[in-house]
Amino acid sequence: MAMVEIDGVKKRYDGGFEALKGVDLTIEEGEILALLGPNGAGKTTLISAICGITIPTDGTIRIGGHDVVTDYRAARSLVGLVPQEINLEPFEKVMNTVRFSRGLFGLKNDDALLEDILRKLSLWDKRDSAVKELSGGMKRRVLIAKALSHEPRVLFLDEPTAGVDVELRRDMWEVVADLKRQGVTIILTTHYIEEAEAIADRVGVINKGRILLVEDKDALMVRMGQKELRIELGEPLSAIPSALSEFGLTLSADGTRLVYQYDSNAERTGIGRLMASVSAEGLVVRDVATVQNSLEDIFVGLVHDQQQEDAA
């Protein structure tokens, strides 16, 4: 079942700047989508449009079947948002802050639920502390607790762990995993690409207001991931032997490593011929290792390709 449906969404500001350029995206119930993109790519604008914070210039957005413009209240009640900016009442106590957020949605008080949320975020012992007494990382936890207070079915995490400690990240991903088990749909934007690689079901790449790709993370890694064969030599080379030129090798600066790039999905990788040629040249091989491209490598490649297309 589609929980979030985005059709032809554009956002144009006064002056003509177009932050979103016809975005189409469907997000299924209970999945984790990681939305990646450089600064200014349109990630936050897209999330703001989905949450009803900004109104699209064109297109439609539905959450749980409710249009975010014409049926705003029903759509917004399904959404929890953890924004980038920390904007909390400094003199209010933590528990009251979270309790108030739940009340904004017209829900009855449920301190047992709020206690569970605060405990999972390691905030329970701070429940009677004023927000101004908390560290930056603790304030970020309060934002997350506020977003979860009304039991949303869709949770947006806009750079939720930017600039915070490793402990909070671990707590956050444990909460995310638990929410996924409950069927909550989670959309995550992050600069920590290793986090997206670790927890996302699908990955979307956005740049300059356009979605470049949305694909199952594992399928993306298989389809686009290239591998490197790294051959460590017993003795350094000053240049790559001419007999090995057909393989497109690169030589490390110190001459002790040959690097061969290949497609792991190809019927023939050429590794066998390469190693036979290396042996025929009398090169002493000290070690051989393979390295697969990370999601970050793929992301950088997609953005680079778009930049080249725009420049052409």
UniProtKB/TrEMBL annotation:
Stored SUPFAM superfamilies: P-loop containing nucleoside triphosphate hydrolases (SSF52540)
Gene3D superfamilies per the UniProt record, alphabetical: P-loop containing nucleotide triphosphate hydrolases
Keywords: ATP-binding, Nucleotide-binding, Transport
CDD domains associated with the record: ABC_DR_subfamily_A
Transmembrane domains' residue ranges: none
Lineage top rank: taxon: Bacteria
UniProt key word Ribosomal protein: no
Entry GO MF terms: ATP binding; ATP hydrolysis activity
Protein's UniProt keywords contain Membrane: no
Ranges for domain ABC transporter: 4-233
Family annotation (Pfam families): ABC_tran (PF00005)
The protein, known as: ABC transporter related protein
Organism the protein comes from: Sagittula stellata (strain ATCC 700073 / DSM 11524 / E-37)
